[in-house]
Amino acid sequence: MTKNYPAVNRGLPEDWRSGIFLGRIETREGPTPILIRDGSVFDMTRVAPTMSALIASGVRSGGERMGGIEVLESAELLSPIDLQCVKACGVTFAVSALERVIEERARGDHTLAAELRGKIESVLGGSVRSTVPGSPEADALKQALIDEDMWSQYLEVAIGPDAEVFTKCPVLATVGHEAAIGVRSDSGWNNPEPEVVMIAGPDGKAVGATLGNDVNLRDFEGRSALLLGKAKDNNASCSMGPFIRLFDDGFTMDDVRVADVAMTIQGEDGYVLEGHSTMREISRDPEDLLRQTMSEHQYPDGFALFCGTLFAPTQDRDEPGRGFTHKPGDTVTISSARLGTLVNRVTTSAEAPAWTFGIGELFTNLARRGLLPA
Question: Which parts of the sequence belong to the Fumarylacetoacetase-like C-terminal domain (predicted)?
Answer without folding.
Answer: 170-346
